[in-house]
Design brief:
The protein is mostly helical. The chain folds into two domains: 1-110, Farnesyl Diphosphate Synthase, CATH 1.10.600; 113-285, Farnesyl Diphosphate Synthase (Orthogonal Bundle), CATH 1.10.600. The chain is built from 13 helices and no strands. Helix 3 (30-51) packs antiparallel against helix 4 (58-74), helix 3 (30-51) crosses helix 5 and helix 4 (58-74) packs across helix 5. The longest helix is centred in the last third of the chain and has 27 residues, at 196-222. It starts with a helix and ends in a 21-residue tail after the last helix. The model has no long low-confidence stretch (mean pLDDT 91).
């Protein structure tokens, strides 16, 4: 990536759009920091292209994203961000399968897919977030197949956390991600507090947070494949996101009591905790120095990723 203006734009997008990921990115080694900013900026660009478009214009927005991806991989990208992402996929050998899967997840949103089963939701989470973890492995030079699987699990865990946090916001946009097999009945409006329907939503959120915890624990096992700085940055992101689930649990898993956020003080404590854990692992890391290589396997869903 040799366009300083494009990289600066990516840094600005990261800083403006996600405080949690911006915090984690600052802890990454300098060699990876800008590359991760470009990866995040493209993913955010794709997300915003759908979410910020009027519903009737979302199919056209998705078509434009797919045309842009053709340009990215064809070497004809014509905007600073797309050129930076094009350079990134060439330099870090990111398989086209992964960003294509992310756009397939966006298509599920455009089509207004309702999730009948938990397996349906896991597929969605893999597409919109698990593949981001896999692309990050290319950025960070992580090649062990087991580590790739754990990286996909971290993305799935984070997206499950998002689903639980954003139930009310998504409902206002006509989206319901909570699986029908757990809800038992369609969710169309915010249920009255204390009503049987509200209790069912709370129980469903609790079940999804429990599943997210399983994915987070799997992700933890992949951190040993990272260098010290990368593991620190990823661990901070993981713990900040998991803390959102903890906030929801303190609210009896009720997603209709305001947006669950993690305070700055709590984030500072989580950074300190992550640093202590990383330091405790340092002797083992020094004994087992890893070579930075490019993953030579493209993972597919579900057989390469599930079960957790």
């Amino acid at each position: 990536m040799n366009d300083p203006a494009a990289v600066a734009l990516a840094r600005d997008i990261l800083a403006a759009k996600s405080k949690s990921f911006a915090l984690a990115a600052r802890l990454l080694p300098r060699a990876h920091r800008d590359a991760m900013a470009v990866l995040y900026a493209w993913c955010r660009h794709a997300d915003d292209a759908i979410d910020l478009s009027p519903k009737g214009e979302r199919p056209a927005a998705l078509a434009r994203l797919r045309a842009e991806l053709d340009a990215v991989y064809g070497g004809t990208a014509d905007t600073p961000l797309l050129r930076a992402f094009s350079a990134l996929v060439r330099e870090r050998h990111i398989p086209r399968t992964y960003p294509e899967e992310l756009l397939a997840g966006m298509e599920m949103d455009v089509r207004g897919v309702r999730y009948a089963t938990l397996a349906d939701l896991e597929l969605y989470c893999y597409r919109v977030a698990g593949v981001v973890g896999l692309m990050a492995c290319h950025v960070l030079g992580v090649s062990a197949e087991g580590a790739l699987r754990h990286a996909a699990h971290l993305g799935i865990a984070m997206q499950l956390t998002n689903v639980c946090r954003d139930v009310e916001e998504d409902l206002a946009d006509g989206r319901v991600y909570l699986p029908g097999e757990l809800l038992g009945a369609p969710l169309a409006t915010v249920p009255a507090e204390g009503s049987p329907a509200r209790v069912v939503v709370q129980r469903t959120v609790s079940q999804l947070l429990t599943l997210a915890d399983r994915y987070y624990r799997s992700a933890d096992r992949g951190l040993r494949a990272l260098g010290f700085g990368a593991a620190l940055g990823v661990r901070v992101a993981r713990h900040v996101y998991a803390a959102i689930g903890a906030v929801l649990r303190r609210r009896a898993c009720d997603p209709f009591r305001g947006r669950a956020v993690v305070s700055s003080a709590r984030k500072a404590l989580l950074v300190c905790s992550a640093l202590l854990l990383a330091l405790a692992e340092l002797p083992a890391r020094l004994l087992h120095r890893r070579a930075v290589t490019t993953p030579d396997r493209v993972l597919g869903f579900p057989h390469d990723v599930l079960p957790v």
